[in-house]
Amino acid sequence: MGGRWQNVDPMTTFAHRPLAAVLFDLDGTLLDTLPDIARALNRALIEEGFAALPIEDVLIGVGRGAAVLVERMTAGRSVDAVTQSRILDGFFRHYEALHHSADAAVRPFEGVRECLDQLRARGYRLAVVTNKRRDLALRSLEDGGVLDAFELVVGGDTCRERKPHPEPLLHALRTLGVPTEAALMVGDSSNDVDAARAAGVPVVVVPYGYNGGEDPRLLNADAHVSGLAELPALLAATAARDSA
Predict the structure, then answer these.
(1) CB atoms within 10 A of CB 189
(2) Is the peptide bond before 35 cis (omega within 30 degrees of 0)?
(3) 186 bridge partner residues
(4) DSSP-assigned letter for residue 157
(5) Which of 30, 40, 114, 156 is the most exposed place for a label (fewest CB within 10 A)?
(6) What is the value of pTM for the model shown?
């Protein structure tokens, strides 16, 4: 990890007012869902006579919702719209089946549970803003053991627009009754950074996510943390500065 990554100064990170709410991306930020996404997609592809893809290829397509994932993973395969639609339907069916059969491999990244518990104890209001279909997001959060930490879950089908459009973030803040100047976004990809910038919300990025296969450390975030275990200390330092 580069120095810019490890040596972010929390005292100068946010030219920002005191925070009331933290919005989290799901896939690649809170939870490692890539194995389940890859299994569901490959089962759908095999049903249509296509070869399974290595998980590294699937990683590149994750982040903008299942429809974009299928489009990216079938590009160059001469797949017509009807077949693409069947693959998408199959993906959802297999993804749901993984959760219903308790066969999902989803797990929280290291330090996530501790981070969420600390933030809640300090009075922060927590929400998830994801491009994943909301019902699947709820199942992933539940099976990942962190659903109880969140007051609100905004899915990719909650609003007309998805990240990187700012509307899902703004919808979450309207629902919580929190102004943009009192909110923070935490994510792993350009979707999160671009959505936060457009919404006027600062953004913190983690390094281990699904940024289209690109290094999230290169994103122009307001701050970088090596894991969510570092986030409470970053916010505490910022709050101390603001109250000084």
Answers:
(1) 27
(2) no
(3) 24, 204
(4) T
(5) 114
(6) 0.90
Distances (CA, A) of 86 to 48, 71, 194: 8, 12, 31
What is d(CA 210, CA 208) in angstroms, rounded to the nearest whole number?
Answer: 7
Distance, in Å, from the CA atom of 201 to the CA atom of 170, rounded to the nearest integer, reads 9
Residue 127's DSSP bridge partners are: 23, 152
Count CB atoms within 10 A of the CB of residue 100. 10
State the burial class of residue 177 (Cβ atoms within 10 Å of its Cβ: 0-12, 13-18, 19+): exposed
List helix spans (H) across the chain.
Answer: 3-6, 34-47, 55-61, 66-74, 81-100, 112-121, 134-143, 167-176, 190-199, 231-243
**What tens digit of pLDDT does each residue of 79-125 get?**
899 999 999 999 999 999 999 998 899 999 999 999 999 999 999 99
Residues 150 and 88: their CA atoms lie apart, in Å, by: 28
Instruction: Check if 148 is active-site.
Output: no
Helices (H), 101-189: 112-121, 134-143, 167-176
Q: Could you give all domains of the chain from N- to C-terminal order, each with its CATH number?
A: 3-32+107-243 (3.40.50.1000), 34-100 (1.10.150)
Pair 103, 77: CB distance under 8 Å = no
Residue 229's contacts (CB-CB under 8 Å, 6 or more residues apart) are: 110, 111, 114, 115
Q: Are 216 and 206 in contact (CB under 8 A)?
A: yes
Q: Which of 25, 32, 194, 222 is catalytic?
A: 25
How open is the CA angle 197-198-204, to the nearest 5 degrees? 25
Strand 107-108 versus strand 31-32 pairing type: antiparallel
Q: Residue 142's CB: how many other CB atoms inside 10 A?
A: 14
Cβ(169)–Cβ(23) under 8 Å?
A: yes
